[in-house]
């Protein structure tokens, strides 16, 4: 009879998840590439006028980031499910929240964080004033973990379905709306020269809620998916 | 005789409007080996998933004498081996997750995977991937082994080694429950699912 310590499981899980994503670079590059390409299409489709671009920039960057995160989540649990690793996770003698949280953190570090780091560059490309770029980056930095966690709930519930992609979008997009509204809103507020602290705090509060309760919901979703 | 480790009473499971099995009664004790047999689609995998708590839709009762997760070594229908990770990484992760003890390299060597420890599992054959999963049986610390088709894709020598390992573990008090189409050896309890169901001793 033996049960592992939570710390040992956390470390082993985090190392495993980072290794897994690191060894399939397409999973890192794809969302980033999608993000850059979609944002780059806006000046081509609208018009290269700086005033117009700066007006749509907060929304364009945020919608692209949101879709990039969502696309990256479709396969989050699929390969674990197909290989049977998910069943081992669910029958392990630790609360499945711990390995699940490690997976989400690893996924965000290698897909969500790069989006936040490159967002200022894309904002600059869309003629956002340099003074606003740090607000853009912080808002994406605070928003993407929420998007990852909330999307993972949908991914957990649809993991057993062959073509869960569209169902994932239907489930998750309505839940993304508050993050999108406040995320793009905070950049627009900064653009108007108003203080952004309050809106960033709201984004932070949503993040705290998602990070504290989300992994539990993801673990429950996986258990439900495994049950039939 | 000590109390049963596992008691199953009136267990039934329906799937897609078809009764897989019903009124299943048996109890298993430490040190016993149980082989679940039955035709394809008879519900062997589902029965094991019910026993380990993965499948929640059933009638009847499944009672373990003490909480199962700390005791359980479960190998599902899929080996649970990720192709991107090496043999050792797979085994070390599963060891940490389940809280087993023992030397992963020695376990891999026992399954003829010596020299393949650092090869990504995706480059190994199906049988070798299966062996990575089975290497957990050569680690320590689990008293209930529930194995879904452990002999699949394993060569004759491997089958013999595995059979010996199951008996060795049972002799040390491990309860082993597995599904297989292989012949039943001596001293193995047999649980047959299907029309002609029986519980033989």
From TrEMBL, chain A:
Function, in words: Required for the export of heme to the periplasm for the biogenesis of c-type cytochromes.
InterPro entries, alphabetized: Cyt_c_biogenesis_CcmB, Cyt_c_CcmB_bac
PANTHER family with a match to the protein in the record: CYTOCHROME C BIOGENESIS B-RELATED, HEME EXPORTER PROTEIN B
Record's protein name: Heme exporter protein B
Keyword Cell membrane recorded: yes
Main location, first listed in the record: membrane
TM segment ranges: 20-45, 51-73, 108-126, 138-160, 166-187, 199-222
Bilayer topology annotation: Multi-pass membrane protein
Family: Belongs to the CcmB/CycW/HelB family.
Originating organism: Alloalcanivorax venustensis ISO4
Subcellular localization: Cell inner membrane
Swiss-Prot/TrEMBL keywords: Cell inner membrane, Cell membrane, Cytochrome c-type biogenesis, Membrane, Transmembrane, Transmembrane helix, Transport
């Amino acid at each position: 009879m033996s049960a592992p310590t939570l710390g040992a499981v956390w470390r082993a899980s985090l190392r495993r998840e980072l290794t897994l994503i690191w060894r399939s670079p397409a999973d890192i590059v794809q969302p980033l590439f999608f993000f850059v390409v979609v944002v780059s299409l806006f000046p081509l489709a609208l018009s290269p006028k700086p005033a117009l671009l700066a007006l749509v920039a907060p929304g364009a960057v945020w919608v692209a980031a949101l879709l990039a995160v969502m696309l990256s989540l479709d396969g989050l649990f699929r390969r674990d499910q197909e290989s049977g690793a998910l069943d081992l996770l669910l029958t392990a003698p630790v609360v499945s929240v711990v390995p699940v949280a490690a997976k989400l953190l690893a996924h965000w570090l290698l897909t969500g964080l790069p989006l936040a780091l490159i967002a200022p560059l894309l904002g600059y490309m869309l003629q956002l004033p340099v003074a606003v770029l740090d607000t853009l980056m912080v808002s994406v930095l605070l928003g993407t973990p929420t998007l990852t966690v909330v999307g993972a709930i949908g991914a957990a519930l649809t993991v057993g379905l062959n073509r869960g992609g569209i169902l994932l979008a239907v489930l998750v997009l309505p839940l993304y709306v508050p993050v999108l509204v406040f995320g793009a809103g905070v950049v627009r507020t900064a653009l108007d020269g108003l203080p952004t602290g309050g809106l960033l705090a709201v984004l932070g509060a949503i993040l705290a809620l998602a990070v504290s309760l989300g992994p539990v919901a993801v673990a429950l979703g996986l258990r439900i998916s495994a049950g039939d | 005789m000590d109390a049963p480790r596992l008691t199953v009473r009136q267990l039934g499971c329906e799937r897609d409007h078809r009764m897989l099995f019903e009124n299943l009664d048996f109890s298993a004790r430490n040190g016993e080996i149980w082989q679940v047999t039955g035709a394809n689609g008879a519900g062997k995998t589902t029965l094991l998933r019910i026993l380990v708590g993965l499948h929640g839709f059933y009638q009847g009762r499944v009672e373990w004498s003490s909480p199962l997760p700390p005791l359980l070594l479960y190998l599902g229908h899929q080996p649970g081996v990720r192709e991107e990770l090496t043999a050792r990484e797979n085994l070390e992760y599963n060891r940490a997750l389940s809280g087993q003890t023992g030397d992963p390299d020695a376990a891999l060597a026992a399954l003829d995977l010596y020299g393949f420890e650092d090869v990504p599992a995706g480059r190994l054959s199906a049988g070798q991937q299966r062996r990575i999963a089975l290497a957990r049986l050569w680690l320590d610390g689990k008293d209930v082994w529930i194995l879904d088709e452990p002999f699949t894709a394993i060569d004759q020598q491997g089958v013999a080694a595995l059979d010996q390992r199951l008996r060795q573990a049972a002799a040390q008090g491990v309860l082993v429950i597995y599904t297989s189409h292989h012949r039943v050896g001596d001293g193995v309890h047999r649980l047959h699912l299907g029309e002609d169901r029986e519980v033989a001793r």
